[in-house]
TrEMBL record:
Species per Swiss-Prot/TrEMBL record: Streptomyces heliomycini
Gene3D superfamilies: alpha/beta hydrolase
The protein's name in its UniProt record: Dienelactone hydrolase family protein
One Pfam family it belongs to: DLH
Domain (Dienelactone hydrolase) ranges: 20-235
Family: Belongs to the AB hydrolase superfamily.
Key words of the record: Hydrolase
Coiled coil: none
EC number assigned by the record: 3.1.-.-
Source organism superkingdom: Bacteria
GO molecular function: hydrolase activity
């Protein structure tokens, strides 16, 4: 019996050679694709395992890179790279488009059926792809209730789901409210799930290096957020499309 397979892919973006993780479902037919973005620290085994899990569900999944093959565990260094990136929508879109092109040109991917899911900085990249008008079937984010340039959310042409911890100091209530106002004004089909008692990066298992204040793992909500992501994909990007619907 054939099983899910993986391989490393290299591609240029943001002046760097990015190193992504591509997970392919069993079989040889075309399948819907999922672009998977990491937290600000960069691509790690956490996102690789999530891509593998999506491939087991039948998706072609690409976990994309932010830092040219590096995982930036030092909080000060991570912030020094991510804060300017988050302030520059065009750079985020460039990183997202480069990864999206890799996923779209993969022979196993149905290029018309792709979703973008991201965590933290990777979620902001997913949202900027939507604001740039990328053809996506769904956008899902965790810890990334970021807002964009005025009016550009009107280019989002797919449902948006956002999850955030109620105690996240990096995405506080005022930020969540601004995100909701932007989505409403743009007429986007959007949902916001607030996980009670959760901090920033509540979905990410504990790491063995220092983190910025307000970060903490919440096992129960991490499982719930993953189920919410899978449910979003099942609704908007089913592995087998019902042509009679």
């Amino acid at each position: 019996m054939t099983t899910m397979t993986t391989r490393t892919v290299e591609y240029p973006a943001d002046g760097l050679t990015m190193i992504g993780h591509l997970a392919l479902p069993a079989g040889a037919d075309r399948r819907p694709g999922v672009l998977l973005g990491p937290e600000g620290m960069g691509l790690s085994d956490v996102e690789r395992r999530r891509a593998d899990a999506l491939a087991e569900l039948g998706y072609v999944a690409l976990a994309f890179d932010l830092h040219g093959g590096r995982y930036v565990g030092d909080p000060e260094e991570m912030l020094a790279r991510c804060m300017p990136l988050l302030a520059d929508p065009d750079r985020m879109r460039g990183i997202g488009r480069a990864a999206l092109d890799v996923l779209r040109t993969e022979p196993r991917t149905d290029p018309d059926r792709i979703a973008a899911v991201g965590y933290g900085t990777g979620g902001a990249v997913a949202l900027e792809l939507g604001r740039a008008g990328a053809h996506l079937r769904a956008i899902g984010t965790v810890n990334a209730t970021t807002t964009g340039r005025p009016g550009e959310a009107a280019r989002i042409r797919c449902p948006v789901w956002a999850g955030v911890g109620s105690e996240d100091p990096i995405m506080p209530p005022a930020q969540r409210d601004a995100f909701a106002a932007e989505m409403r004004a743009a007429g986007v089909d959007w949902r916001l799930t607030v996980y009670g008692g959760a901090l920033h990066a509540f979905h990410h298992p504990p790491v063995d290096h220092p983190v910025v204040p307000g970060v903490g793992y919440h096992r129960q909500h991490a499982r719930r957020a993953w189920r919410d992501v899978v449910d979003l994909l099942a609704e908007c990007l089913p592995v087998t499309e019902d042509l009679g619907a």
